[in-house]
């Protein structure tokens, strides 16, 4: 029997004649480790057998007898399955060496590396692996070559992303035939989060495997972008970033046109066609994934374009629309906002390259509309605690019905559901009228008939679709009260509905799952994170993950006491961070009431231009920006439509929200706009003057000398709306000092002598 097993072992080994020595070495090591026989004893037996058989004692003969005995003992002691594993281990070690050599060669192409990687991965996984050191070295080299060369990411990725993971990713990737490139930051973050939560080799979590999904995804590496620039002579715009802001803004329109009429190589278009054929007729989103995007401390949130496509029709129509979308995202690399963001973070000289993530949109079709049940963004740290019960370390979720765009962008008189995960049913609002007022009323959807993304009134949308999960999203309003449906079969037709998500929070795994996901990913990252997601068909879809920038806070804010009332500019009982800002010299005040009565869109848009110019003039000064409602909102009636680039030099941004009934502390937390302010170290102060516990010395802002005409005479006609106050000139050499205490939900701005530290 042993002879037969030995014969079968040698037959298997002879399939790989170049690996015989390595296989014998592996089998000998196994025999020793298991205590079957030592090297010395086996060697002695070989000599005795050689002598007994009457063969001369030569090196060749000794080697043959040693190998024969290794084969015999291995066949006698190991199962067929184990033998197969160890033979495959020899194959892995061989291919591992080849892969290591090629991946560490500077001149090796992506295709050469991929071919070596594929040969390695064609060997069955088995239960025996190459050494951790060998695997780690190859993983690091592969991650650097294909995904990202950012050291913090590599340090994490090597512990979670396997060699086979990378090969699987590359099967869904398109790279240039001529230019090297990587998958970029957004792709890197999503891949890493998936592997942290759904590992292959580490301990697995059945609950996470049951609920977590990743949308079907394809990647275009940055080499495709570089090749596109080379082919169309668009490298001429490389110096565009070094020009002044006004020139950048003007020339960007020209750049967009150039990109619009540029073309891809025929073979690249064929690659696009194959991707679309694989996707089929299903809505997709083209997401930017630049090299700098979603890196540690540098989110670039919302700086580059993402494009939704309904992706319906014949393949040629879909291909044309896909190419248009790609070029729009490519062009956004040269936009004013990302360039100024790079200036502020010392990254201007970095040669930014754009990669892409192409994802199937999560959701279902309902008539003409396509949408997920819910989507949003969640944070492992909740710096926006409006109640002392809320535990900041358990995180927060911004949740909306439909596409998640309304959760990450500032929108009009519409609000996401803010969910503190430590107390998910604790709302900023108390009464039913307040809850209704500060609830989501508009839903972003894909209109499949029109081929566009559009915003639909929920009151119009809900009766028009039979959504199986509406039970989890709404509460019914009756007799001045709001109550979630009691039964899934309850008829909601004709009822007045309000989006509250009460049943989702209490009757599904959503909350405990969100807490577990955030906890796991934060633990792996070693720092707070935020994750964009969709929730559909009782499944949690990962869309994006990045480290969360949190403003460095002082441990305890020394709130001044016994200050005369005439010294105060404001007092608020809403705080977003522990912050102290001293020595504010200038205040730019956009009068909310004056702004509100402006008659035309153009007049209100002009105010944003004024703010932009003042931001440049006061760039070297300590200045505070104060004004109406939602700065950066896409609804120009609710706030000044500024971008990060328009306000990036302010030290403090105050959002003043007058309300006719009740108030809510929901301002911008969690949006792309908010992240920009945090990363720029701009302190955010929400002020609700109608709150009886608040104080707002508006008279000071309205009666003090307005020096707008001195600083920006071209906008003197806006002096009734925009006021610029030089604080020391009107307060007898005093400055404005701001103290924000998030623990006690208290903040104040007061006038006083100049302090030693301008910002603590």
Features:
4 domains; D-amino Acid Aminotransferase, Chain A, domain 1; 18% strand; 760 residues; single chain; Dna Ligase, domain 1
Shape: elongated
Question: How many domains make up the coordinates?
Answer: 4
The helix content, as a percent range, equals 25-40%
| Rg, Å, rounded | 32 Å
Work out the number of β strands. Answer: 28
Looking at the structure, the CATH topology of the largest domain is Dna Ligase, domain 1
Provide the spatial order of strands within the biggest beta sheet: 2-18-17-9-10-11
CATH architecture descriptor text of the largest domain: 2-Layer Sandwich
The helix tally amounts to 29
Structural class: alpha+beta
Overall mean pLDDT score?
87
Q: What is the end-to-end distance?
A: 81 Å
CATH class of the largest domain: Alpha Beta
Q: Beta fraction of the residues? A: 15-25%
Could you give a short account of the major beta sheet? 6 strands, mixed
Structure overview:
The protein has four domains: 77 residues, no CATH class; 189 residues, ATP-grasp fold, A domain (Dna Ligase, domain 1), CATH 3.30.1490; 184 residues, D-amino Acid Aminotransferase, Chain A, domain 1; 188 residues, no CATH class. The protein is an alpha+beta fold. It contains 29 helices and 28 strands.
């Amino acid at each position: 029997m042993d002879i037969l097993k030995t014969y079968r072992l040698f037959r298997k080994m002879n399939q790989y004649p170049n690996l015989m020595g390595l296989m014998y070495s592996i089998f000998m090591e196994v025999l020793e480790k298991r205590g079957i026989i030592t090297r010395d004893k086996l060697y002695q037996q070989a000599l005795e057998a050689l002598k007994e058989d009457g063969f001369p004692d030569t090196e060749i003969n000794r080697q043959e007898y040693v190998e024969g005995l290794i084969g015999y003992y291995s066949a006698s002691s190991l199962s067929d399955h184990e033998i197969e594993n160890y033979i495959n281990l020899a194959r892995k070690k061989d291919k591992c060496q080849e892969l290591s050599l090629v991946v560490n060669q500077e001149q090796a192409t992506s295709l050469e590396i991929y071919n070596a990687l594929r040969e390695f991965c064609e060997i069955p996984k088995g239960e025996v692996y190459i050494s951790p050191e060998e695997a780690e070295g190859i993983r690091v080299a592969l991650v650097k070559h294909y995904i990202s060369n950012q050291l913090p990411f590599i340090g994490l990725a090597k512990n979670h992303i396997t060699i086979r993971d990378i090969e699987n990713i590359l099967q869904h990737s398109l790279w240039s035939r001529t230019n090297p490139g990587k998958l970029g930051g957004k792709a890197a973050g999503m891949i890493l989060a998936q592997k942290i939560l759904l590992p292959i080799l580490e301990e697995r979590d059945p609950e996470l495997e049951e609920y977590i999904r990743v949308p079907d995804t394809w990647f275009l590496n940055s080499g495709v972008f570089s090749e596109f620039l080379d082919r169309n002579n668009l490298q001429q715009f490389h110096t565009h970033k070094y020009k002044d802001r006004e020139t950048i803004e003007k020339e960007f329109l020209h750049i967009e046109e150039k990109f619009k009429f540029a073309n891809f190589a025929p073979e690249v278009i064929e690659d696009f066609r194959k991707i679309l054929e694989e996707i089929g007729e299903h809505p997709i989103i083209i997401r930017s994934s630049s090299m700098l995007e979603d890196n540690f401390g540098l989110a670039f949130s919302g700086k580059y374009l993402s494009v939704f496509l309904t992706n319906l029709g014949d393949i040629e129509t879909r291909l044309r629309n896909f190419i248009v979308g790609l070029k729009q995202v490519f062009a956004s690399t040269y936009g004013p906002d990302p360039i100024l963001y790079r200036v502020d973070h010392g990254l201007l000289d970095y040669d930014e390259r754009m990669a892409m993530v192409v994802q199937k949109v999560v959701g279902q079709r309902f008539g003409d509309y396509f949408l997920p049940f819910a989507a949003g963004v969640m944070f492992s740290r909740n710096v926006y605690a409006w109640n002392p019960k809320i535990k900041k370390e358990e995180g927060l979720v911004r949740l909306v019905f439909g596409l998640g765009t309304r959760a990450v962008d500032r929108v009009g008189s519409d609000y996401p559901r803010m969910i503190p995960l430590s107390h998910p049913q604790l709302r900023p609002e108390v009464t039913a009228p307040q809850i209704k007022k500060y609830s989501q009323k508009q839903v972003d959807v894909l209109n499949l008939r029109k081929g566009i993304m559009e915003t639909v009134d929920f009151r119009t949308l809900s009766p028009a679709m039979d959504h199986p999960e509406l039970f989890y999203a709404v509460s019914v309003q009756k007799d001045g009260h709001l109550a979630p449906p009691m039964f899934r079969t309850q008829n909601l037709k004709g009822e007045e509905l309000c989006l509250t998500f009460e049943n989702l929070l209490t009757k599904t795994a959503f909350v405990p799952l969100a807490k577990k996901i955030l906890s796991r990913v934060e633990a792996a990252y070693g720092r707070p994170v935020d994750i964009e997601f969709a929730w559909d068909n009782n499944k949690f879809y990962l869309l994006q993950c990045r480290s969360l920038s949190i403003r460095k806070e002082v441990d305890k804010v020394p709130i001044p006491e016994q200050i005369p009332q005439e010294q105060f500019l404001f007092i608020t009982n809403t705080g977003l961070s522990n912050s102290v800002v001293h020595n504010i010299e200038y205040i730019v005040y956009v009068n909310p009431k004056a702004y509100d009565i402006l008659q035309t869109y153009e007049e209100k848009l002009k105010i944003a231009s004024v703010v932009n110019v003042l931001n440049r003039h006061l760039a070297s000064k300590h200045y505070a920006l104060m004004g109406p409602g939602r700065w950066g909102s896409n609804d120009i009636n609710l706030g000044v439509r500024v971008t990060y680039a328009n306000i990036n030099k302010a030290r403090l941004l105050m959002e003043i929200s007058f309300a006719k009934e009740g108030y809510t502390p929901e301002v911008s937390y969690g949006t792309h706009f908010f992240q920009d302010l945090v990363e720029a170290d701009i302190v955010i102060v929400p002020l609700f003057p109608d709150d009886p516990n608040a104080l707002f010395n508006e008279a000071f802002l309205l009666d003090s000398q307005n020096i707008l005409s001195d600083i920006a005479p071209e906008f003197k006609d806006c002096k009734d709306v925009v006021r610029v106050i030089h604080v020391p000139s009107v307060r007898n050499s005093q400055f404005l000092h701001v103290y924000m205490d998030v623990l006690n939900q208290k903040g104040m701005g007061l006038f006083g002598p100049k302090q030693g530290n301008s910002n603590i």
